[in-house]
């Protein structure tokens, strides 16, 4: 969730600087609802982290920085798409670059005693991971110029919270856990109020 907080922070800065987002009472309330959902998730996640107090702070800072990098990547993808002539070329370039940078990381992990092993036998999972990455990169380059960075990342946040809620409710990856009312209300109303708050105000 701290990754998403970083994403939203950078996205709001971009939109305020570009005069794409003017806050009124409705979309401010939408942001507050999303903040409540993020807070609930962070408290729940921190309770499951094993390590010292300093470890948790370090993980939190790294997560926040990773989130701001997502928003900066969206800004860079937009410029890269303009320079390369298409969003598809931008997505291809980003994914190839990520693959090239993964090679030194793999070498470091190997030397640290963490072997690379392909244990997932279902080929379609590998395919879906690649398609998801390409779709995400393409969307980050194309959608912000249409609806703004803040709205894009609010919807990304809502999608992630909704998926996490469904996974928790039905126990897709762990034991089933009930979804809190705060998270449900925040996911249901937060993005809509931020997106359409200007019309209500």
From TrEMBL:
The keyword Metal-binding does not apply. The keyword Cytoplasm does not apply. It comes from the Eukaryota. Pfam families: DMT_YdcZ. Keywords: Membrane, Transmembrane, Transmembrane helix. InterPro entries: YdcZ. One of its GO terms (cellular component) is plasma membrane. The chain crosses the membrane at residues 21-40, 52-72, 92-111, 123-140, 147-167. PANTHER family: INNER MEMBRANE PROTEIN YDCZ. This is Zranb3 protein. It comes from Symbiodinium pilosum (Dinoflagellate).
